Amino acid sequence: MALLKVFDIKGNEVGELEVDSTFAEAQINSQVVKDYVTALRANARQWSANTKGRSEVKHSTKKPHPQKGGGRARQGSLVAPQYRGGGRVFGPKPKFDQHVRINKKERKAVIRFLIGEKIRNNALTVVQDFHMEEPKTKHVADFLEKQGISGRTLFIGEGNFVQVGNDNDGKKVSVRCEQHDNFIKSIRNLQKIEFALTSHVSGYDVIVAKNMIVGASALEQLKEWLC
Q1: pTM of the model
Q2: Co-location of 160 and 78 in the same domain
Q3: What are 54-70's pLDDT values in tens digits?
């Protein structure tokens, strides 16, 4: 068990929260973490890089210059790779589906371990809630300064994104979290600050973040999901 202090959005201590040993004592093989992050990065790639070989380049088939008499090396075509605009040798081509499947059990174990690491390293702060009457970047900046938090920081709140707005075809085109809308707007101008919902938490976001700030109810949701 671990006991964490709970703060309000102004940085004042309002209580304590007992964290289950599921997080505080979570352990995992480091190779599993590496495989998980590698899979996430591979799945984020488009795999669409494409170049044209000499058989695909549209160019004149005329011989650049006579075979003999000029003192130059013989050349047969302007699509040869040594010419500007010629075909590329061994260039990248769109690959087959490179999606790497991530085991759900491993994913949960990795995120559970990474959150536990943040707790053990005193890099996790619990906030009562992220409710703000209006968007105010200064309030969030003052909170971070009061807590002595700097560097890449990940905020995690409870809830789900809601699709809003329609395009010309009547399709919903944007998403927002009405519950934390003012808070999300407040952190847009702060560098290296990100916000994620418990339903969209990625282990990569957790591992690259120097600090984590989690809502009290969000921590309970994470416990229910990961345990």
Answers
A1: 0.76
A2: no
A3: 999 998 888 999 999 99
146-181 burial, b for 16+ CB within 10 Å, e for fewer?
eeebeeebbbbbbbeeeeeeeeeeeeeeeeebebbe
**Residue 5 φ then ψ, to 5°:** -75, 145
CATH number at residue 217: 3.40.1370.10
Give 23's contacts (C-beta < 8 A, 6+ positions apart): 2, 112, 115, 116, 119, 223, 226
CA-to-CA distance for 166 and 138, rounded, in angstroms? 33
- Are both 29 and 61 inside the same structural domain? no
Looking at the fold, whether 141 and 36 belong to one and the same domain comes out as yes
Same domain, 70 and 144: no
User: Which structural domain, as residue segments, surrounds residue 180?
Assistant: 2-46+99-226
Q: CA 70, CA 201: separation in Å to the nearest integer?
A: 67
List Cβ neighbours of 118 (8 Å cut-off, separation of 6 or more).
Answer: 124, 206, 211, 212
Mean pLDDT of the chain: 86
Q: Domain count of the chain?
A: 2
CA 50 remoteness from chain centre? 25
